[in-house]
Every structure is written in C-alpha cells, then in structure tokens.
C-alpha cells in the first residue's frame, strides 16, 4: 500500500471503559472499522494519566479501583479516506473527541 506525501492523522480520544453500541470495547471497534475500510494502519495508545471534558483525573495508580484510563486511536491515511471514515467512527460512539490535522509523510515502511 502506498501513502501520498500529504496525509491526515485522525485521533480519537476516549476512556478505556467506553464501548461501541454492540458492547465491543470502543478501541477494538474503531480499529476493526479502520481495517475493514482499507486504512493504511491504526494504533491504540493507552495513557497512564489524563482528564477530559468532565475534568475527572484518570490514573493508573495501583490503589485505584476504577481506572478508565485515557485511550487514543491514531489512524493516518489520505484526506479523502479519513473524511470517509469519520462518519463511521461517529456512528460507533456518542462521546469522544475526534481531531485531524495535515502532516507530511516522510517514510512509510521501508521506503523513502
């Protein structure tokens, strides 16, 4: 798969406890949807500390019973592919932060 030099990273921010409508962990549902739609790749990042719209601090401290740690799913692909994916991601959840920006791809895999 080739990527154009001008790509868009899509980032979806939410809590580890968030689920898709069918009960699947949201990060899994997003990655599966990205793969089904032919995205170049997707990565799930789990944060040890963070807060969102509610300002509740979520942390990985040992004594915390309910961690609900921050999750970020990152997907990078051509702008038109990302734009087509966004409504599908929005349909999976009613509560998350979705961002996108322009980037220049320097290397993808073993090619310059």
Largest sheet: 5 strands, antiparallel
Order of helices and strands: EHEEEEHEE
Gross morphology is: globular
Number-wise, the strands total 7
CATH fold label: Alpha-Beta Plaits
What count of domains describes the coordinates?
A: 1
Helix content: 10-25%
The oligomerization state is: single chain
Radius of gyration: 15 Å
Q: Which CATH class is shown?
A: Alpha Beta
**Average pLDDT rating:** 88
Number of helices: 2
Describe how the helices and strands are arranged.
Blueprint: E1 6-15, H1 26-36, E2 42-46, E3 49-50, E4 58-59, E5 70-77, H2 79-92, E6 97-100, E7 103-104
Antiparallel strand pairs: 1-5, 1-6, 1-7, 2-5, 3-4
Helix pairs in contact: 1-2
Written overview of the protein:
The protein has 112 residues and is an alpha+beta fold. It has one domain (6-104): 2-Layer Sandwich (Alpha-Beta Plaits), CATH 3.30.70. It contains 2 helices and 7 strands. The strands form 2 sheets. Strands 1, 2, 5, 6 and 7 form a 5-stranded antiparallel β-sheet that branches. It has a two-stranded antiparallel sheet with strand order 3-4. A hairpin with a 7-residue loop joins strand 3 (49-50) and strand 4 (58-59). Helix 1 runs antiparallel to helix 2. The model has no long low-confidence stretch (mean pLDDT 88).
């Amino acid at each position: 798969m080739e990527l154009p030099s001008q790509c868009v990273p899509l980032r979806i921010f939410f809590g580890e406890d968030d689920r898709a409508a069918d009960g699947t962990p949201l990060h899994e549902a997003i990655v599966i949807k990205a793969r089904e739609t032919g995205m170049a790749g997707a990565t799930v990042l789990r944060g040890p500390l963070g807060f969102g719209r509610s300002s509740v601090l979520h942390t990985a401290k040992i004594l915390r019973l309910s961690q609900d740690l921050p999750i970020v799913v990152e997907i990078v692909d051509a702008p038109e592919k990302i734009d087509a994916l966004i409504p599908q991601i929005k349909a999976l959840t009613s509560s998350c932060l979705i961002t996108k920006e322009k980037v220049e791809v320097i290397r993808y895999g073993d090619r310059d």
